[in-house]
Amino acid sequence: xxxxxxxxxxxxxxxxxxxxxxxxxxxxxxxxxxxxxxxxxxxxxxxxxxxxxxxxxxxxxxxxxxxxxxxxxxxxxxxxxxxxxxxxxxxxxxxxxxxxxxxxxxxxxxxxxxxxxxxxxxxxxxxxxxxxxxxxxxxxxxxxxxxxxxxxxxxxxxxxxxxxxxxxxxxxxxxxxxxxxxxxxxxxxxxxxxxxxxxxxxxxxxxxxxxxxxxxxxxxxxxxxxxxxx
Length: 230
Description:
This protein has a single domain, classed as Glutaredoxin (3-Layer(aba) Sandwich). 46% of the residues lie in helices and 10% in strands. It is built from 9 helices and 6 strands, in the order ααααββααβαβαββα. The strands form 2 sheets. A 4-stranded mixed β-sheet has the order 2-1-4-3. Strands 5-6 form a two-stranded antiparallel ribbon. α7 (159-171) links the parallel β3 (133-135) and β4. α1 packs antiparallel against α2 and α1 runs antiparallel to α4 (68-81). 22% of the residues are buried.
């Protein structure tokens, strides 16, 4: 795990430098040629599927990449990700979470106790993996790095705030159970999940670890991985 941690620190430092450079370049390009800047940001948006989201147009999210709030939010996510303990081949961190009914449990315990439910909800791959959505700190809170025309959710100040926000996700019918991270963000930290990340856990171990979102968020890669496990 020492080498994995070392690689994590190195990669985080590289991503941080890239983010700072990106913010500076976008600012300069916008000053020189706003149209060229828009073209380049749209190209980036294609990689994170933002351009495919019918709920947002470029003006809602594109200009935020040259904002200080983008730097502040992304830097916080990277700092917290340094505490991650979930690595492929290692034990999956059994971090505490809270069910939508407000009951305390943990990631691995919830998966074990609710396995029959998963098999009903996730028919394609329930024979090789357990499914669970852990709702963590809001990536684009209204009082943080916000997108225009997004759902109005402020930073969670209490567990009640987080549970209330998670209800919006539940209403979207994610086809698997939803739990929420505790207010100390312990699950998000141990899994390096901010702003979003995909994992496959099997028998209490991490067998797949997706890249850090939004650029590394790739559901199709997860599907391909699970198909190979069948």
